[in-house]
Q: What sequence folds into this?
């Protein structure tokens, strides 16, 4: 079974500073994907970034980067130059690669608050 | 505006009511999902449909009844719900193989059972 752990219920960061949101995972699958989603108060889940388990380099998407440490089974999200609009819930998720039953398993989330 | 549309956005219903949630996607995806999001809990997968066929029912009580008439539409029929069923219900879609962008989610229906 797959499991995602996000140990930070809430995080605070000053505007324009960087912040790291922690995510650890557990799986016996040799191939998997790791995702981060952002959920503003409106409720919509917004895809941010993806890392494949065999990818050699850490994924980056604009101000988002994923610090992937496979041996430690961690996939932390780094947000650089935080903006007020970054205030939201952030979820780490994992997929099982391949097969017809493509499913995502989510962590409990981290509430990020960006202070002006 | 996302590629997955959910209606209604908000719903308040009594325990004896019958209501339905609707989800629609025009992304050409083959798989659709219902997730339940309760406060301070991870998203819980409820149902998975692949090419209109239900491929997973995650031990969901029978008071929740899904329907998938085609690959673009997914419904969740609700009847005799309990107050603990109050939650945000999220619909999502994806291709049936691993994709780097995972799911596309709708904005959810916030359900309150009184």
A:
């Amino acid at each position: 079974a797959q499991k995602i752990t996000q140990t930070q219920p809430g995080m605070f960061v000053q505007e324009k500073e960087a912040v790291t949101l922690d995510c650890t995972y557990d799986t016996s699958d040799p191939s998997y994907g790791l995702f981060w989603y952002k959920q503003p108060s409106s409720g919509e889940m917004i895809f941010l970034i993806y890392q494949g388990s065999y990818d050699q380099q850490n994924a980056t998407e604009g101000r988002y980067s994923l610090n992937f440490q496979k041996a430690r089974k961690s996939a932390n999200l780094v947000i650089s130059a935080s903006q007020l609009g970054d205030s939201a819930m952030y979820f780490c998720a994992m997929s099982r690669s391949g097969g017809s039953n493509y499913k995502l398993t989510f962590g409990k989330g981290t509430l990020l608050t960006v202070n002006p | 505006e996302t590629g997955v549309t959910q209606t209604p956005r908000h719903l308040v219903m009594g325990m004896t009511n019958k209501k339905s949630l609707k989800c629609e996607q025009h992304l050409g995806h083959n798989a659709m999902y219902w997730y339940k999001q309760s406060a301070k809990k991870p998203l819980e997968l409820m149902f998975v449909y692949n090419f209109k066929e239900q491929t997973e029912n995650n031990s969901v009580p029978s008071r929740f009844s899904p329907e998938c008439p085609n690959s673009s539409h997914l419904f969740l029929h609700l009847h005799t719900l309990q107050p603990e069923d109050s939650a945000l219900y999220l619909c999502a879609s994806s291709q049936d193989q691993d994709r780097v962008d995972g799911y596309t989610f709708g904005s959810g229906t916030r359900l309150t059972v009184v």
Notes: The CA atoms of residues 18 and 79 of chain B lie 4 Å apart. Chain B has a mean pLDDT of 90. Chain B touches chain A through 30 residues (CB under 8 Å). Chain B has no helices and eleven strands.
